[in-house]
Amino acid sequence: MILVIKPDATAEQIDHVIQRIEELGFKSHVSRGEQRTIIGVIGDERKPQAETLAAIPGVEQVHHILKPFKLASREFQKHDSIVKVGKIRIGGGHLAVVAGPCAVESLDGLNRIAVHVKKAGANILRGGAFKPRTSPYAYQGMGEEGLRILRDVGDKHDMPVVTEVMDPRQVALVEKWADMFQVGARNMQNFDLLKEIGQTRKPVLLKRGMSATVKDLLMSAEYVLAGGNTNVVLCERGVRSFEDSTRNMLDMSAVPNVKGQSHLPIIVDPSHATGRPDLIPSMTKAAIAAGADGVHVEVHDCPEKALSDGPQALLPDQFARLMEDVRKLAAAVGSTVD
Ligand code: PEP
Ligand code: MN
Asked: How far, in Å, CA of 188 to CA of 165, rounded?
């Protein structure tokens, strides 16, 4: 860290700053310039007390050198992480294509959709059993029965399954039935949930909160990593903006932005980002071109009867056509859909 001292700080204040730095277990390196004094603080700046340095009288600014997310950072691990979900690898040139309905609605319904997405080339099946709905009156999901159905259908089609977990109390149950947890946008900063998932070794798809910065997303990943669970895949799914012709604003720059700062894989969810089937194919392709480690697309064979997110679902044949382009693009960027 570098502390910039106020131009009018007294010698006593500067001595006090140095004393506090040393009391906190850091070393200090003072450079007195003609106009300003700056103090280099040497030690692990992620120590919780480091923050308090900004409150010492005479300190004007504190500049951090290290990223506040240590385990998630590229500094900590140079090579890309590869996360395994069942037999599927995500990252390091292996693309995840996560597809399925928003919600698990019935065994037959999920099975029909799974047949289509598997045939088209998806490698992970999705479906929510616990649905985080803005309205308490909207469809809330099938709960445990939905998890069983998802497991059955995934096994039948030899696809690992991902499903949302909303509460620390659901972690053990979801862990039992799914191959990957999904932490949804609304729960990205549910820190108790992240800590609980950190205690497991099951992969997690961590979606960006709708008003979260890229740094916030990486800090949330850090919660899971700090618990010892290294199997974190990030997901850009758009953030709230003033634009009202799309459901959210897709921040495609988050992909290279995250990749520069972190070794964790990141995939893109154009379904929740745009909310519009007419935009999903081009945004899926843009995601692959931007270097994403995969995509997450909602597919339904009868969107008008879907119990949630029907209007944004791709039809199976639209998804199959999109997958042809995805494979071509993957080859062009040197990636594969295993
Ligand atoms: C979902 O994947 O169905 C979902 C609710 O996503 P998000 O948390 O990104 O809104
Ligand atoms: Mn959905």
From this structure: 11
Beta bridge partners of residue 124, listed in sequence order: 98
pLDDT digit string, tens, across residues 245-298: 999 999 999 999 999 999 999 999 999 999 999 999 999 999 999 999 999 999
Distance CA 194, CA 221 (A): 8
Ligand 1, atom nearest to 131 Cα: 5
Which bound ligand lies closest to the C-alpha atom of 126?
A: 1
Give nearest CA residue, ligand 1 atom 10: 185
CATH (domain of 272): 3.20.20.70
Q: What is the pLDDT of residues 41-74, one digit of tens each?
A: 998 877 777 788 999 999 999 998 888 899 999 9
State how many domains the chain has. 2
**Range of 133's domain?**
83-337
CA distance 240 to 273: 9
CA distance 69 to 261: 10
Q: Ligand 1 pocket: which of 139, 150, 164, 307 to mutate (most atoms <8 Å of CB)? A: 164
- Average pLDDT of the residues in 165-180: 98
H or E segment and range at residue 60? strand 59-63
Q: Under DSSP, is residue 158 helix (H, G, I), strand (E, B) or coil?
A: coil
Predicted TM-score (pTM) of this structure: 0.93
Residue 321's nearest CA partner among 116, 70, 90 is: 116
Asked if residues 237 and 272 have their Cβ atoms less than 8 Å apart, the reply is: yes
Q: Is residue 311 part of a domain?
A: yes
Same domain, 105 and 234: yes
Residue 245: count other Cβ atoms within 10 Å of its Cβ. Answer: 8
